[in-house]
Design a protein that fits this description.
TIM Barrel, single chain, alpha/beta, 46% helix
Length: 343
């Protein structure tokens, strides 16, 4: 899911996202609550009408941003008091308020309010997990709109017993889908993959699994191999705005001198608007000149790259050849012999 934090995917038109066949976008409860406010969005007809996006939208609960962006916060069993990163004003977010905000925003999939602790701190994870489970029950009770799907979020750091306990507790609440939170926040990549392996066995197989905030292409393929269905990350557009482009042969920095007179497209195998019309030399010129168009074209390409990768993965799954597809893809992308690739 391309990330539209503040009801927009940075530097990309909704029209272009439709042409890329993006199935779903993500927007951010914390940011939209602070600005422009959920009541205003509701008065404007909800997120779909407000941002001109006709396809599904997912909003996160705001929990991660409260813990990652706010310099001053106080957590208790009822909720979180935090200081806005915009103007220093104080706010209170509880499970009930998070649900109320998301209901006013009007997304199709909304998330339970959770606590996202440091992944390697066992003692804190035990405390935070108890809160996350209690808050999930309160979110379930507070949820009123039957046209929105409410997902539970599993936590538990890198600890198998906590992760499996979280999956059991939330599965008993019978949410229509489950997110795997608290990963890609500083833990070793091997630890993240272990957690995903545990979750593949622990979560219901007939309901969607959403891996939150993971966006490296090789990580996505390895996550899919472990049963993940949905993912989001700012990585494609954020790196694009700094000059990084994804290709099947790895990432390139278009600002480099080597591309100054390169007439090739970013990726000769890509049929996105950027690659059909513009050379690496032109894109390098735009980025080094600080032109907004450069950020737009780079972002468009990177999103096309990720969406095409997910399309290829879906086809490979349907044709029962995902393992061979993912192995060959990772081998090419990382320049590693296929027999040395482990999914």
């Amino acid at each position: 899911m391309p990330v539209g934090t503040q009801a927009t995917v940075k530097a990309v038109l909704p029209r272009d996202l439709l042409e890329l066949d993006a199935h779903m976008l993500l927007a951010n409860t914390y940011h939209l609550y602070l600005r422009p406010g959920e009541a205003l969005v509701a008065r404007m007809g909800g997120l779909h009408r407000f941002m001109g996006w006709p396809r599904p939208i997912l909003t996160d609960s705001g929990g991660f941003q409260v813990f990652s962006l706010s310099e001053l916060r106080k957590v208790d069993d009822d909720g979180v008091t935090f200081k806005s990163h915009l103007d220093g004003s104080m706010h209170r977010l509880t499970p009930e308020k998070s649900i109320a905000i998301q209901e006013q925003l009007g997304a199709d999939v909304i998330m339970c309010f959770d606590e996202c602790p440091p992944p390697t701190d066992r003692e804190y994870n035990e405390i935070a997990l108890a809160r996350t489970h209690a808050w999930a029950i309160r979110c379930r009770q507070a949820h009123r709109r039957n046209d929105q799907m409410l997902f539970g979020i599993t936590q538990g750091g890198i600890f198998r017993d906590l992760r499996e306990h979280s999956a059991r507790v939330l599965s008993e609440l019978d949410f229509p889908g489950y997110a795997i939170g608290g990963l890609a926040v500083g833990e070793p990549k091997e630890a993240m993959l272990r957690v995903l392996t545990w979750m593949d066995d622990a979560l219901p197989h007939h309901k969607p699994r959403y891996l939150m905030g993971v966006g490296e292409p090789t990580d996505l393929l390895r996550a899919i191999a472990r049963g993940v269905d949905m993912a989001d990350c700012v990585l494609p557009t954020r790196l694009a705005r700094h000059g990084a482009a994804f290709t099947p042969d790895g990432r390139i920095n278009i600002r480099n001198r080597i591309f100054a007179e390169d007439e090739q497209p970013l990726d000769p195998e890509c049929d996105c608007y950027t690659c059909r019309h513009f050379s690496r030399a032109y894109l390098r010129h735009l980025m080094n000149s600080g032109e907004i168009l450069g950020m737009c074209l780079m972002s468009l390409h990177n999103l096309a790259f990720f969406l095409k990768l997910m399309q290829q993965a879906r086809i490979a799954i349907e044709e029962q050849r995902f393992a061979s597809f993912a192995t060959a893809w990772i081998a090419r992308y990382t320049h590693t012999p296929p027999d040395q690739i482990q999914l």
